[in-house]
Design brief:
The chain is α+β, with helices and mostly antiparallel strands and 571 residues long. Helix content is 33%, strand content 21%. The longest helix is centred in the C-terminal third of the chain and has 20 residues, at 551-570.
Length: 571
């Protein structure tokens, strides 16, 4: 598919049924739902053609599915009712949302719809498009709180066989088909700078045409302007994503109750995730809600082979590592690895730190560490059974590569030696603070190991780790046998410095149950719609304050499909 507009000159115009802004997953789904209904669509994106598919291409491909065949084969008992109860316990929507009151009322409705989708049409819809899943369902965001609180009661994280690219591929194929049919006009290197509003209705967009650029997927691209264009349509859909690459904006919007996002952070998204369109929409009268709700991760490590600016990778940890703050204190329960990412992040930011630590050993790393992202999982992304068997045997090549090449993986034979290396790394990082006492670290490890040695123990993390091994997948590939961190056969000791990794925006454009953008007084802003992360994955905040993982890709799919079909019916 080629760009149908020359990236030179000024004043190119066009008319169509719908303009979709953003060629990521939610934009592709929306556009192809519309073209499937016979509507004419112009799909705009500021990046070169190489980045078609957006952030979703880089993802691990995890999807939140409920009562799936994969779960049932593993004897996991799940239901839509249990999943929605978990969702509500995590979301903590504002009072009145369930009665259709307050700013969370549409987010609540989208949450209901998403859980029904995850328990119903999502899997067969994708399966019919050729998508398949790794049979070993993962247990992300365990929570660790009493019933009714945050967390997944059962494993629901289904990793797509082929990871993010395999989720994106059917919709890219559908876009090519729609282009050949003359229904979809995909225009790269178009950055929308304003919406055209006529008599209170959005009727088009104004965009800068950016210089051609041969940047690869995810790489920063030129912002040199070579022309301008104004396009008109019956409706405009914003599918431009969130603010994850705009660290200044993320810091400004972070809730003061949770401290401050640090000055040094990593980015889990490409530079193009800049939040530009959220501001453009607000200038045209659309309401933004829950701007302080975000889903960043505390377990980031700098990519040794970066693609975009400040490129970070998230460690997907099993539960055995000790999680320490910048001064070497254990994070309070249930802030164990893999249990409550946002809670751990807020603990770090409330302290004013820019890092925390995992302390473990070589065996735990090999068994329990996985890395986020399609490029970090060549076995699953490449659908390679031999490489997958290496992972099961604890020989993950990407994890070993990070351990060998990263300056943030610190090895030592004793706790005192490990603490000295941790302090040296902190002292060498400008603006970083924290000091780990070697004797205190040795005592902490000894106390933990004594609990493991009992075979039972009262330490909550030791108990939770033992309980995790009751699930066959965790016992097989994700959770190490309970042994002392200092067991000679499992050494040496390892500390990994963890940094804040920006990722998702949970708030966004306030939308009704079909995706129509709303004004601050709750009225429909005619002609403007929003999907995906730009819409807070539905309604301006379908996740509430916390997410259950696997719901971001799913949210792009659900909002794109729902809004695409609703808009097609409305035209």
């Amino acid at each position: 598919m080629t760009d149908s507009v020359h990236n030179k000159g000024v004043g190119t115009t066009g008319n169509t049924d719908v303009i979709v802004i953003g060629a990521g997953l939610s934009g592709l789904v929306t556009a192809t739902e519309l073209t499937a209904a016979g509507k004419r669509v112009i799909l705009l994106d500021q990046e070169p053609a190489a980045s078609l598919g957006g952030q979703a291409w880089w993802s691990f491909g995890g999807l939140f599915l409920v009562d799936s065949p994969e779960q049932r084969r593993l004897k996991v008992r799940d239901s839509a009712e249990l999943a929605f109860s978990d969702w509500l316990g995590s979301a903590q929507f504002d009072p009145g949302a369930e009665r259709g009151e307050g700013p969370d009322r549409f987010g609540y409705r989208w949450a209901q719809g998403f859980v029904e989708f995850a328990a119903g049409d999502l899997r067969p819809w994708l399966h019919a498009k050729g998508v398949r899943w790794f049979p070993l369902v993962q247990w992300a965001e365990r929570g660790g709180y009493p019933a009714g609180g945050h967390g997944n009661s059962v494993p629901r994280f289904h990793v797509t066989w082929g990871t993010g690219p395999a989720v994106v591929e059917p919709f890219v194929a559908a876009a090519h088909e729609a282009n050949r049919a003359g229904l979809l006009d995909l225009r790269f290197r178009h950055r929308v700078t304003s919406l055209v509003v006529t008599d209170g209705r959005v009727t088009g967009v104004r965009a800068e045409v950016l210089a051609d650029d041969d940047a690869g997927r995810g790489e920063p691209s030129s912002r040199t302007v070579t022309g301008e264009v104004e396009l008109s349509a019956q409706a405009v859909v914003i599918a431009s994503g969130g603010i994850g690459a705009n660290h200044d904006l993320a810091r400004a919007r972070w809730s003061a109750e949770a401290g401050h996002l640090p000055g040094r952070m990593l980015s889990g998204v490409p530079d193009s995730t800049d939040g530009l369109m959220l501001g453009v929409a607000a200038e045209s009268g659309a309401a933004l809600v829950h701007e302080d709700r975000m889903w960043h991760y505390p377990e980031g490590i700098a990519n040794h082979s970066p693609v975009w600016t400040r490129h970070g990778i998230r460690i997907l940890p099993g539960p055995s590592s000790l999680w320490l703050d910048a001064d070497g204190n254990r994070l309070p329960g249930p802030l164990f690895p893999g249990f409550d990412a946002l809670g751990a992040l807020q603990h770090v930011t409330t302290r004013g730190d820019d890092h925390s630590w995992f302390v473990l050993n070589k065996t735990i790393m090999e068994k329990e560490f996985a890395l986020s992202g399609s490029e970090q999982n060549p076995d699953l992304t490449g659908k390679s059974v031999p490489l997958l068997l290496e992972r099961v045997r604890g020989r993950s090549v990407p994890v070993r590569t990070f351990a060998e090449q990263s300056e943030e993986f610190l090895w030592a034979d004793t706790p005192a030696e490990l603490a000295a290396k941790m302090n040296a790394l902190t002292e060498a990082t400008e603006g970083s603070r924290g000091h780990v006492d070697g004797e205190s670290l040795a005592a902490l490890i000894a106390a933990r190991d004594a609990q493991v040695a009992t075979g039972l123990g009262k330490d909550p993390q030791v108990v939770a780790t033992a309980a995790a091994r009751h699930f066959v997948v965790d016992k097989t590939i994700r959770v190490s046998p309970p042994r002392a961190l200092t067991a000679p056969q499992d050494g040496p000791l390892l500390a990994v410095r963890l940094s804040v990794l920006t990722r998702k925006t949970l708030g966004g454009l306030w939308c009704d149950e079909t995706g129509r953008a709303l004004t601050p007084d709750g009225e429909v802003l005619e002609g403007l719609w929003a999907v995906g992360e730009a819409a807070g994955f539905g309604g301006g905040g379908a996740h509430g304050h916390r997410a259950l993982e696997g719901t971001f890709l799913g949210g792009c799919l659900f909002t794109g499909r729902t809004t695409g079909r609703a808009l097609a019916a409305a035209l």
